[in-house]
Design brief:
Elements (H helix, E strand, L loop, with lengths): L20 E6 L7 H12 L6 E5 L1 H10 L6 H12 L14 H18 L6 E2 L18 E2 L1 H10 L2 H6 L3 E8 L5 E5 L7 H7 L9 E3 L2 E5 L8 H7 L5 E7 L11 H13 L3 H23 L3 H4 L2 H10 L4 E7 L16 H18 L15 E4 L11
Parallel strand pairs: 1-2, 1-9, 2-5, 9-10, 10-11
Antiparallel strand pairs: 3-4, 5-6, 5-8, 7-8
Helix pairs in contact: 1-3, 1-13, 2-3, 10-12
């Protein structure tokens, strides 16, 4: 089995992905989040040990479990979480679910049960229902109670370790009053269960979470992928980023109203992954061009104060982004992100593992010098995929 070489030093300037600072970026996507857990398990088999994890929504929950446990216990804790949240789903008799129509019916039934009864260790329906609570209370603006998630986080995540183990953790949420996107980062503040819950507080299902007098909702409302934050925050170290997305920005033209609903959700929550990657790559490469142009200036201009400003602004690290994107199966519909059935959880987990192994089948890209571009992006999980142009 091929593994990623260990970087000689996090501060050593390099030009190959193998020796870069390793980052794991986890998109939001509810029940699809077990894909991320499977991908992380496979990455561990390839000795990918992230120094920084950034997550939104379910990605924030997975990230907290990873960062809040010792390396040898992380997979077990992820499995415990995903087996718990899928434990109440209806039993599946596999022979009946080989046909797409039967499987689609099963998926919709499972999602309907989640909507009615909630998910163990995650959220439960309010009783009495929302309209009976006083206006302005958390109960009046959400259908479910997420107190079970707090208890789960306290049980599965060691927050002392999360804040002191050296792994950087960043989770995104939206300030309801200002509408601004904010990140809670353990290099800037102490992270607790409330910060993870805020990142996963998708309205109107879940209530807002109060932190220091302000109220927050799920970060996916503004952006479901924290890649931009990572690129904005780190401009010195070379980065190798595995970005695990749960919604695909690309897909076929819908043929039915149900397919249209699913496609709309994919587009909305993919957060224009490829567009953002392309935009950041253009910025990186433009800065490189500025530096090359400055190098060609005559000596009498190189000492100009404006050139010094440009030099500082154009300084860039090299960035490699590897996309791992969950692609829906034909039997899945728009309810796929709240179908917490055990069979769906197992399938998504296995798909995450498979896509990582597919990406590592040709590890030569890890040693490829980035001499022409300061930022490159790959989608290697599909046959024939390579550098994204």
């Amino acid at each position: 089995m091929d593994s990623l070489p260990h970087p000689a030093s996090d501060t050593t300037a390099t030009s190959t992905p193998a020796n870069a600072h390793r980052v794991l970026v986890l998109q939001g996507g509810g029940a699809l989040g077990s894909y991320q857990a499977g991908a992380y398990q496979a990455l561990c088999h390839h000795e990918f040990d992230p120094k920084w994890i950034a997550g939104i929504s379910i990605g924030a929950i997975n990230a907290a479990i990873i960062a809040g446990n010792p390396r040898e216990e992380r997979i077990a804790k992820l499995k415990e979480f995903w087996e718990m949240v899928s434990s109440s789903s209806p039993l599946a008799w596999s022979p009946l679910l080989q046909e797409d129509h039967a499987r689609s019916l099963f998926n919709e039934t499972s999602a309907a049960m989640v909507a009615t009864f909630g998910v163990p260790g995650f959220f439960s329906p309010r009783f009495p229902s929302t309209p009976w609570w006083p206006a302005g209370s958390p109960q009046s603006v959400s259908y479910y109670d997420t107190a079970p998630l707090r208890e789960t986080l306290l049980r599965l995540v060691d927050f002392d370790r999360l804040n002191n183990d050296g792994i950087r953790l960043s989770v995104g949420a939206v300030n309801i009053a200002t509408g601004n996107f904010e990140y809670f980062d353990n290099t800037q503040r102490k992270i607790g269960p409330e910060h993870i819950m805020a990142s996963a507080a998708l309205p109107p299902g879940f209530p807002p979470v109060e932190i220091d007098g302000a109220f927050y909702w799920d970060g996916g409302i503004v952006s479901n992928t924290p890649l931009d934050y990572v690129l904005e925050q780190e401009r010195t170290k070379d980065l190798l980023i595995f970005q695990v997305d749960l919604f695909s920005a690309r897909g076929p033209l819908p043929q039915t109203v149900f397919e249209a609903a699913e496609r709309e959700k994919d587009i909305r929550y993919s957060s224009r992954t490829r567009m953002n990657t392309d935009m950041n790559r253009k910025v990186h490469n433009a800065k490189r061009a500025v530096l090359e142009l400055i190098a060609k200036l005559p000596d009498n201009l190189k000492n100009d104060p404006l050139v010094a400003v440009l030099n500082e602004a154009a300084h860039e690290n090299t960035v490699t982004v590897v996309h791992l994107i969950y692609r829906s199966k034909t039997h899945e519909a728009s309810s796929k992100d709240y179908d917490f059935s055990r069979i769906a959880m197992t399938e998504h987990w296995s798909a995450g593992e498979r896509d990582v192994y597919q990406s590592m089948m040709h590890p030569d890209w890890l040693e490829r010098p980035q001499s022409d571009e300061t930022m490159v992006a790959y989608d290697l999980s599909q046959e024939g995929s390579e550098n994204i142009k």
